[in-house]
């Protein structure tokens, strides 16, 4: 998403009525445009790769490829402009959240969430921030990361740049689940300064979004259980 350009969205959902409903509501937003829709997994991969949206609203259970499989395929390198995936599902199960995050999803909402939360969710992931449904506890990202963390801390990825002390502090607060606004308040700095730090962290560590940054913090040993 560039400057004042609208957020380009693709809706992937096998239920035609639900898909049409999401598309109509999102397309009605002044800062969004629905550029495509898909009713099954294979179509979702094709439509998203062809249209290159900013955000894909993705159901987990679709014919053929599941939403998790679609998300994983979209995250495969090389992709200079990976789509950000907002998973929306009826199933509030930790395993689905774990698998969605592992596949590369940026956000997770339940289908019973009010439409204004779905709209806000699209905006959130479009900004590169992580989003978890209110029904999913804030510590879930940390639990997911600890679950897949190897016994010994993993070395940092090659070709990454070292973080400054301030960036390191911001990363640790991100791993606690704090939003940019909460980090700004905790560190007594401007919200825009936090956004700059987050952007630099992602660039230096060669990470796609906030979810990957939090997982990196746990897997690298920067954050430990307890």
UniProtKB/TrEMBL annotation:
Sites bearing 4-aspartylphosphate, chain numbering: 59
Pfam families hit by this protein: GerE (PF00196), Response_reg (PF00072)
HTH luxR-type domain boundaries: 156-221
UniProt key word Transcription regulation: yes
Keywords assigned: DNA-binding, Phosphoprotein, Transcription, Transcription regulation
InterPro entries given in the database record: CheY-like_superfamily, NreC/VraR/RcsB-like_REC, Sig_transdc_resp-reg_C-effctor, Sig_transdc_resp-reg_receiver, Tscrpt_reg_LuxR_C, WalR-like
Superkingdom of the organism of origin: Bacteria
Domain annotation Response regulatory: ranges: 8-126
Protein name (Swiss-Prot/TrEMBL): Response regulator transcription factor
The species this protein was found in: Streptomonospora nanhaiensis
Phylogenetic lineage: Bacteria, Bacillati, Actinomycetota, Actinomycetes, Streptosporangiales
């Amino acid at each position: 998403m560039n400057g004042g350009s609208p957020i380009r969205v693709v809706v992937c959902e096998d239920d035609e009525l639900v898909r049409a409903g999401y598309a109509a509501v999102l397309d009605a937003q002044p800062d969004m445009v629905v550029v495509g829709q898909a009713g099954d997994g294979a179509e979702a991969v094709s439509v998203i790769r062809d249209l290159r949206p900013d955000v894909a609203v993705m159901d987990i259970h679709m014919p053929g490829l599941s939403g998790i499989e679609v998300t994983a395929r979209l995250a495969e390198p090389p992709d200079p402009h990976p789509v950000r995936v907002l998973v929306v599902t009826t199933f509030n199960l930790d395993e689905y959240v774990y698998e969605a995050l592992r596949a590369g999803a940026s956000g997770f909402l339940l289908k019973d969430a009010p439409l204004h939360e779905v709209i806000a969710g699209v905006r959130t992931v479009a900004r590169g921030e992580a989003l978890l449904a209110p029904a999913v506890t804030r510590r879930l990202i940390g639990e997911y990361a600890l679950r897949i963390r190897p016994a010994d801390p993993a070395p940092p990825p090659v070709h990454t740049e070292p973080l400054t002390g301030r960036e390191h502090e911001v990363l640790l607060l991100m791993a606690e689940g704090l939003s940019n606004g909460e980090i700004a308040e905790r560190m007594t700095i401007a919200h825009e300064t936090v956004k700059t730090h987050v952007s630099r962290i992602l660039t230096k560590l060669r990470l796609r979004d906030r979810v990957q940054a939090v997982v990196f913090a746990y897997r690298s040993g920067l954050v430990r259980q307890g």
